[in-house]
Design brief:
signal; EC 3.2.1.89; TIM Barrel; alpha/beta
Length: 360
């Protein structure tokens, strides 16, 4: 019996160890929605609760928040208030620094207004800005678990100065190193994981374009970060399939040995009247439906594949409750896409799909 109990205990311990550390959602827009449309989120019983409470009750343990430089929505003050809510609900915080006054993504990485436009000036500015953000968070009692130094920066950041493919990968590496140093020099205690976030989680070409060039420009750059992450959306074509996701992430762990990784943005449609306009991967459609059950199935599969690779520590659903912009992941396509990719109804009612985070 003792042997059997020991074996069972070892099995349970392995299962507990294998579970994803970070089960997350981006909730950046919740305070905007509460202010502008008076949204009230409701749990499965129809009870009105704060979004952070509903997320935590359904297995979410970390929330991602984008930070813009310009004063206003999504700025540092906005994010401090939001992070305090998350912390009070027992959630970890993942800070996503855009280093821009607005969206930063594969199509745009604009230098904030008033920042220098030369490499030396930007190297100092990104350090000072990052140090101010991190020290402010510590002073407000917020210790993020993860900080992204940039958002979807496959061709660099702070264009044109830090645009790797068109200007200089050495510039890109120098700017990112300055941002990383600011976090390490900050008052934050404990220190967060420093993360580099790209698009294209299932596209080895995108990953290699960035990482091979950065490693040539600065072979020591990996020592300045703890993890890497990428976005994974199924709307872009049949090549964005589960097999390529596994293969690309596996390749990345070989290129960056010892680093943790996440899929830090993802979404699957609840409804997609325009679905015929997108060449969804054949291992997803039509077998995975556009509904709550399909969202559960798809998230579970992504989580399973991340967990199966050494270093895989988490997944995060993008803007999970953005009820007045439910198209989500297609914002950068410049076209109408699947109209609803979130896990809440437009009236704030939670969908059955959210509870998938309690199972991964």
């Amino acid at each position: 019996m003792a042997i059997r109990n020991f074996a069972l205990g070892a099995l349970l311990a392995h299962a507990a160890q294998a579970a994803l550390q970070h089960k997350g959602a981006d909730w950046s827009s919740v305070a905007v929605l509460e202010r502008d449309i008076n949204i009230q989120y409701k749990d499965a019983q129809g009870t009105v609760k704060p979004l952070e409470t509903i997320l935590a009750e359904n297995g979410i343990n970390i929330v991602r928040q984008r930070v813009w430089v310009a004063k206003g929505d999504y700025d540092l003050d906005y994010n401090v208030a939001l992070a305090k809510r998350a912390k009070a609900a027992g959630l970890d915080v993942h800070i996503n620094l855009h280093y821009s006054d607005s969206w930063a993504d594969p199509g745009q990485q604009r230098i904030p207004a008033g920042w220098p436009t030369d490499l030396a000036g930007l190297t100092t500015q990104i350090y000072d800005y990052t140090l101010n953000v991190t020290n402010t968070l510590q002073a407000e009692g917020i210790q993020p678990a993860i900080i992204d130094i940039g958002n979807e920066i496959a061709d660099g950041l702070l264009w044109p100065v830090g645009r790797g493919g068109q200007t200089s990968w050495s510039n890109t590496a120098q700017l990112l190193s300055s941002a990383s140093k600011a976090i390490r020099d900050s008052d934050l205690n404990p220190k967060p994981k420093i993360n580099v976030h790209l698009n294209g989680a299932a596209d080895q070409g995108v990953q290699d374009f960035f990482w091979q060039n950065i490693l040539k420009a600065d072979p020591n750059f990996p020592s300045q970060l703890d993890m890497f992450s990428a976005s994974f959306y199924p709307f872009y074509g049949p090549e964005w399939n589960f097999t390529r996701l596994t293969n690309t992430l596996t390749h990345m762990t070989q290129l960056l040995p010892g680093k943790e990784f996440m899929v830090s943005e993802m979404a699957w449609p609840f409804t997609c009247a325009q679905g015929g306009n997108f060449a969804f991967p054949p291992d997803m459609r039509p077998s995975i439906p556009f509904n709550a059950e399909g969202q559960r199935t798809w998230v579970s599969e992504v989580a399973k594949r991340v967990e199966a690779i050494t270093g895989g520590v988490g997944v995060e659903y993008w803007e999970i409750g953005w009820v007045n912009n439910a198209g989500l992941a297609n914002r950068s396509l410049g076209q109408t896409g699947c109209e609803d990719n979130i896990m809440f109804e437009f009236n704030g009612n939670v969908r059955d799909s959210l509870s998938v985070f309690s199972t991964i």
